[in-house]
Structure formats: C-alpha cells, structure tokens
Design a protein that fits this description.
Low-confidence stretches: none
Largest sheet: none
Structural class: mainly alpha
Oligomer: single chain
Strand content: under 5%
Helix content: 55-70%
C-alpha cells in the first residue's frame, strides 16, 4: 500500500496541479494545528466563561422557580380555605335539616336558661312565709259514728313553714330543648 501511495505521489510531482493540491493540504493541516493550539490556549478562558454563564443561569432559574412555587402555594392555600368553608356550610345545613341545633342556638338557649334560673332564684328568695293550707281549714269536722258522741279535737297550733333553703335545681339546655315543640317530619 505504501508503494501505491508513492506511485500516486510521484505522478503528481510532475504536474503543477499536484503541487497546488500538496500546498492546499499542507495549509489545511497547518490551519488545523493552529486551531488546536488556539483552543488549548484559550480553552481555559472559554471554560471559565461557560462556568460563569451557567452559575448566572442557575441563580435566575432558582429565583423564578421559587416565585412560581410561592404563587402555587398561595393559590393552593386559598383553595383549601374555600373547600373547608364549603364543607363546613354543607355540614351545618345537613345538621340543621336533621333538627340538630347549632352552637349559636345552644349558646343563646344557655344564656336564656341562666337568666330564667336567676329570675326563679330571686322569686323563691323573695317569697313570703308559707301560709296555712286553706283546703284543710275549710274541711268539715269528722262525723260521729252511732253511739259515740262527736269528740271535739283541740286545734293544734301549727308553726308557720320555713321558706325553702335549697336553691331550685338549675335548668339545663337539654331540659329547655325537651319543652320545645317537635317539628313534624
């Protein structure tokens, strides 16, 4: 194979076209070597420039990603809040349709029961001493049986009743709810 190349090269030496081709190939070879040397020389600079460009791109990408994540998190939070509110409203409506009183209803009733308990307590404390039973005083005397004369019983003097010292049992919201009319289903 080397012999064939020498034969081909020998044939081109004689013609001016061969010299031009040799000259062009030599120039292309030298241009390639020059480019290689230049790349080696400036390769470090180009590499450093690429690293700097990559760092800049990474920081801007992280910043944009962080902003996007914050926006998505804000939207998700708002969506969860709305979903929670819708759920609470639906549960409240379902409980209301079943006749279950709401917290506000129970609080209102509890306050009213406390007011009524206080009013009852003040009325029982301010009530005068108990008066004798009128029904017993108007009762006719016992009838005498045959053969026995009617014996007169001396009237025993009764001491006036003491007012109750125990406070009235407090009324609970459950007691009040029991007294409310039930809705027909």
């Amino acid at each position: 194979m080397g012999k064939k190349l020498k034969d081909l090269a020998g044939e081109t030496n004689d013609s001016p076209l061969g010299d031009t081709i040799k000259q062009s190939a030599k120039q292309i070879w030298l241009a390639g070597l020059g480019a290689f040397a230049k790349a080696q020389e400036e390769g470090g600079k180009v590499f450093d420039a690429l690293v700097k460009e990559g760092a800049t791109l990474q920081s801007s990408t992280r910043k944009a990603t962080g902003e996007t994540i914050a926006q998505v998190a804000g939207k998700a939070s708002g969506t969860w809040d709305r979903l929670e509110q819708v759920f609470e409203n639906r549960v409240a409506r379902a409980l209301g349709s079943l006749g279950v009183p709401s917290k506000q209803d129970i609080d209102t009733l509890s306050q009213r029961v406390a007011e009524l308990s206080a009013a009852v307590q003040s009325l029982t404390e301010n009530q005068p001493a108990a008066q004798p039973n009128v029904a017993q005083a108007a009762k006719p005397p016992a009838k005498a049986t045959e053969g026995e004369p009617a014996a007169a019983k001396p009237a025993a003097a009764r001491a006036p009743r003491k007012p109750a010292t125990k406070p009235a049992k407090p009324i609970t919201p459950a007691d009040v709810l029991k007294t409310l009319p039930q809705e027909a289903e």
